[in-house]
Design brief:
Number of domains: 1
CATH superfamily: Spore Coat Polysaccharide Biosynthesis Protein SpsA, Chain A
Number of helices: 10
Structural class: alpha/beta
Radius of gyration: 18 Å
CATH architecture: Alpha-Beta Complex
Number of strands: 9
CATH class: Alpha Beta
Helix content: 25-40%
CATH topology: Spore Coat Polysaccharide Biosynthesis Protein SpsA, Chain A
Length: 262
């Protein structure tokens, strides 16, 4: 290889950084890995931070011989937000996207999202995603990316799912997750939407979200207090205003998961 090509290879930075926290995910991890390796868009880096798994998740990841994949092992178990932040600090790609270790992308996800971001000059974009059982069989109708997202409408419901969203870090900067909150993804998206006027929808289903019976996002009644704190502690709203948005979030959450297939 010519010297100039070697220098380029060393300096080349992937266009997309994929951020994944991993904790005891061995049951589904191989399917998730396959969905990334099968992407038609190949200019990516995948930074996986293992959050002190006690199963064989690390061993599964270490078996992959792909230089685009970086495995980091956290010094302590700090939760998904902490693990994502560790990966984010290492990320060098222009476009940042997220994939949990039990979720799944269709092979065109990255290609479609990057093309959409560039074509529409988007700073944040999100797509439809299928809501499936643990075997990736659709359980609820697809979540639809059917409207532009603003800070104001994101307060009432979190339309931006991590597995189907992407943002341009060159334009909006990296946004880290608040640690210690069970609603860290909502806070992160709200902080990003403070910086830009709108996030844009791509109405195609290109991702699959596993709905586990014990999923935190499904147990709305157990996290109402955590959602209230999103507004009260992180957005610094008054008590009355925080209660108003918490009620709206709860009602929208009920509607979001109300249409279950027989």
């Amino acid at each position: 290889m010519p010297i100039q090509s070697l220098i380029f290879a060393k300096k080349h930075m992937a266009e997309v950084s994929i951020i994944t926290p991993c904790y005891n995910s061995s049951r589904f991890l191989e399917e998730t890995i396959e969905s990334v390796l099968n992407q038609t868009f190949t200019d990516w880096e995948w930074i996986i931070t293992d959050d002190q798994s006690t199963d064989d998740s690390v061993e599964i990841i270490q078996k992959i011989s792909d230089p685009r994949i970086q495995l980091i092992i956290a010094e302590k178990n700090g939760g998904a937000g902490h693990a994502r932040n560790i990966s984010l600090k290492k990320a060098k790609g222009r476009f940042i996207t997220f994939l949990d270790a039990d979720d799944f992308w269709e092979e065109n996800f990255l290609e479609e999202m990057v093309a959409f971001m560039k074509k529409h000059n988007a700073e944040i974009a999100y797509s439809n995603y299928a809501r499936c059982d643990e075997n990736l069989i659709p359980k609820i109708e697809d979540f639809k990316a059917d409207k532009e997202v603003t800070f104001n409408n994101l307060l009432k419901t979190c339309r931006l799912s991590l597995l189907s969203s992407m943002y341009d870090s060159q334009r909006v900067g990296k946004e880290f997750f608040p640690e210690g909150s069970k609603r860290e993804d909502h806070v992160m998206w709200l902080n990003l939407l403070k910086k830009i006027p709108v996030g844009k929808p791509l109405p195609k289903t290109m991702a699959k979200y596993r709905m586990h019976p014990t999923s935190i996002s499904r147990r709305k009644q157990n996290i109402v207090k955590d959602q209230y704190l999103v507004y009260k502690d992180f957005m610094k709203f008054s008590t009355l205003k925080s209660l108003y948005y918490t009620v709206n979030w709860a009602l929208n959450g009920f509607m979001k998961y109300s249409k279950i297939f027989n």
